[in-house]
Predict the structure.
Amino acid sequence: MADFSRPYVYGPYPELVERHAGGAPYEIRDALAEPLPTRGMVDLKKRVMWVPLDAWARPITRHENGHVRFSPLQPTKVRFDARTLMAVEDARVNLALSALGLPVVLDLESHSNVVLLLAQDGKARDGFAQFMRAIASLGTSVEGAIEAQLLAAPGPLGELIADWMTRARGTLETARLVAGGEVAPYSVGVALASELARELRALGLLDERLRARSRAPAGCCVRHHDEGLLPPEDCEPVHGDHGEKQRAAVPPGRMEVKKAPLSVPLRPGQSSGRRWRASAEGSVVRYLARWPVDRAVFRRRGRKGGGTTLVDTSGSMSLEVADLDRLLLATPLGMRVAIYSGSGAVGELRIVAEGGRRATAEHLARFGSGNVIDLPALEWLAHQPLPRLWISDGVVTGVGDKGSEVLKRRCTALCKRARIRRVGKLDEAAALLRPR
Amino acid sequence: MVDARTKKSRKSDSDSSTATISWELIERVLASPWVDRIYLWGKPGIGKTRVAYCKGRIARGVYAITLTPDLPASELRGHYLPKGGELVWTDGPVVKAMREGARLVINELSHGSDDTWAFLYPVLEQAETARFTLPNTETVTPAPGFNVVCTDNCPPDDLPPALRDRFDAILEINEPHPDALALLSEPLREVARRGFALEDDRRISLRGWLVLDRLRHELGLGDACLVVFGAERGSQIHDAIVLGGGVR
């Protein structure tokens, strides 16, 4: 049975990027559909990458790919707050990407958000967070704005952080050029992070255990489970806000595709939908009377009708079996019709008509009372023959039948991309499907 | 019948290493005079059709057809065509291949209709019993050398058992053909090989890489990726090539 549950079609390709081939394929997950602290994250050991599966997310996927290419599988254990090393690691990766001609250029919203977060760190007098954000921004398009903001801020810390940005950039870039490679050696990054930690300790931003009380998130995008590094669950989002996290935290349900036994003709009394046409070429003579007229005496098979209709049969649609029966009666021969609904974390998409045949009424009953699998069902529809019709009230939900703005946005974008026409009412659909 | 999958599973029972069919073995089978009906299947874009057209017993020519659910058997068998005031019988590709002892390549066999499958039953019979009578009452039998290669992306499981049983060899291959990989310029080869090993919905076909390799010199890598793979996927593949393959 096909599994259309992964909301992934066009994601990144970390397998093409990593230094050594041969590992299992990465699992690509939608960062916006899960409650993550950042918009991008990668687990190099478990081979999972979380990125927003949207066109605007290219700089994020680029950065995460950079970690796959340049970051070690087994990071160095450090005695100081590991976020310091992770911020330097982000800078090392970003600078390498920039040198390769793949700069991390944030879009306006992400750019403004980082600048805003830096300002919030300043207001909260969270010097550690300011340091981390500034260092991690090296090599990205937001670096200049952050430096300018730090220099404009009152007090000596801003200037000190800006100095550190210059120093870190110089150290990493020099090391990259000296090494003659595409990236500064990892050991240089570790040494730089150690120096930075000493400075932070001197400034009182790290306690005697060399830990910061700050909730700074920097460097959370590489996940290390067993290294004592900060797990992402403990971080605050780098970009975006809590509201977005809440709105996004609904993944689509798992979809099972089934085909009901199509034991009944779609139109009683009519053939299976195969159309025949007269032709002047062929091997089966059927229309001899046409010889003096146009010589099209042969019978040849014509094209069957096509297209696909997907019906949301969740509770909110209030569709009875009789209603679906009515829809099937209006369906053109050759069209594929599927119904879907779900419950909990699972949904079922059931093909109930195809090629001139349909399922009996007992197979038209809904699977569950919720939607749950709108997105995977639409992804299925996007791969079916045109024209594509989606009969739904437009309510979109995921696991637990919970609504999500992100899921809805993704469904809308998919409909546009795959030329799926949504119709809210069954009568409207029946009128559209009726042969003219 | 040689079923490569059966051999593979048998071997894996006793041996932890996985047995795989190589292109070299497939080419030997295609050249063998003892194997006349071959079912060759595997992922799209790895070179199945290419070897079917170019390797083995093709000296007497190659006829190729691609099946679809709407394709009638008469397209394969032949037609009466009006010529002047009369109708003249014209052989279809299957009949021509049988008469000439040529190779018949049938692409996408699993997409065929009942009508075409039923027509292929006698065609895929052993040479001694393969025969059918045309609408003009002429009976056709295969000339020596006639051989059939069916290519498909799906295993033969969906075919009617009687049709499946007619194949001398069922060969599964999932590695890109080395000749096809060799057509790629060196920096793209490893990236292409890795892109091919991905899961179904992320796999990058070899055809795409070949076109990209030709276009990138004219359009530049960035634009060539967009043209070949589309905007979203193309930008991701571009980044991966630059980062992983060092191609600019």
The interface with chain A takes residues 69-70, 72, 74, 77-82, 115, 135, 190-191, 193-195, 197-199, 201-202, 204, 230-233, 235-237, 239-245, 248 of chain B (CB under 8 Å). Residues 195 and 204 of chain B are 5 Å apart (CA to CA). The longest strand of chain B covers residues 78-83.
